[in-house]
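User: Could you write out the 3D structure of this protein bound to acetyl coenzyme *A? I've included everything you need below.
Assistant: Certainly. Input first, then the structure.
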Amino acid sequence: MSDDLKRGLEGVLVAESELSHIDGDAGKLVYRGYTIEDLARNASYEEVVYLLWHGELPSRSELETFEEQMTAERTLDEDVLDQVRTLADADEVPMAALRSVVSSLSAHDDDATFEDVADEEANVRKARRITSKIPTALAAFNRLRNGEEPVEPREDLGHAANFLYMLNDEEPDEVLAETFDMALVLHADHGLNASTFSAMVTASTLSDMHSAVTSAIGTLAGSLHGGANANVMKMLKEIDESDKNPTKWVTDALEEGRRVPGFGHRVYNVKDPRAKILGEKSEELGEAAGDMKWYDYSVAIEEYITEEKGLAPNVDFYSASTYYQMGIPVDIYTPIFAMSRVAGWTAHVLEQYEDNRLIRPRARYVGPTDQTFPDIDER
Ligand SMILES: CC(=O)SCCNC(=O)CCNC(=O)[C@H](O)C(C)(C)COP(=O)(O)OP(=O)(O)OC[C@H]1O[C@@H](n2cnc3c(N)ncnc32)[C@H](O)[C@@H]1OP(=O)(O)O
Ligand SMILES: O=C([O-])CC(=O)C(=O)O
């Protein structure tokens, strides 16, 4: 047993996985051997989900069947919708609302059990239901907190387009639907990131799929992980409202010891390939709107931080200005990340159950030893 301390488990190999691979020096990401660039350009989110869960890309007929199965699970049970309403009325934080709702989905899932948690077919069905229902719950939550009634899912729209439709009560145009679909593809999996690892730890105790996804949502919410996308947009807006240019604002922030959201990564030593693709999308959206402000601020910050700190943008940096220009509310950026990443979480949970070993590391004890228990009146 080694006594080397690996803080944050940095670089520690804890599992074998066939799902995704990151080459942090080359800035390359693949899902099951397909490059992220190829998938972003050619695959729909549904195709990527199928790839992650079933090991290969679907044929046309397999995809049709899969899309029908996903579509059939979109509707929320009335009780769950009531819970969404209650959370919206309480003005709950969107990630917390999502965490609570996903947890309670098990109450209405016939496959939910703590008995036979590793049943693969049941787990794929549960993963399908959770993945299909998250967009409905999130769109309904956003509408209800704004005093609007939820919009029923449509069967003739894909996963991405249907979400935007339910969010806005308006069918998105092709550019918006395709951009959003691509964003979902880009966020679907990413090795053993913290939230995925969290899901795996939960599954490794032979707890169930709903618990694993609930753990993962809680983990994604933090500002060092998925929560950074909303913080990037808050920063861009703060810059816009200040009398400083982006470079000055960031210089001051760094001098105050603040971290700049959307920069740095545990695995990438170069620019995240997803940030490159999202940066292009952000630029295209700016050009289409005739307003390059958000993209220009982002580029100025990227140039400065790369030069000054040697840090490159991660996925959260350009997703922020992309979503903003699509009219998506800032505080649901991280729930949208979850809406996509649920594919990866559940795929890793399936892998974990397949070859399970309890995940249980150790801490080096540095506390006091040999203490004598004092009587309560002597403390
Ligand atoms: C989807 C995702 O989860 S992508 C990541 C999203 N998170 C963010 O964008 C938040 C900002 N980024 C960060 O906080 C970090 O880069 C992390 C958490 C992502 C990675 O952190 P780690 O691998 O633990 O690197 P670590 O925190 O040791 O940083 C190394 C050095 O770079 C600095 N650094 C890293 N990121 C940043 C940043 N965004 N702004 C300023 N300095 C930074 C650290 O201060 C540290 O400097 P030091 O050695 O002088 O103390
Ligand atoms: O891999 C990580 O540590 C964080 C990340 O980029 C992701 O989860 O997409």
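The beta strands are 20-23, 28-31, 34-35.
User: Perfect, thank you.
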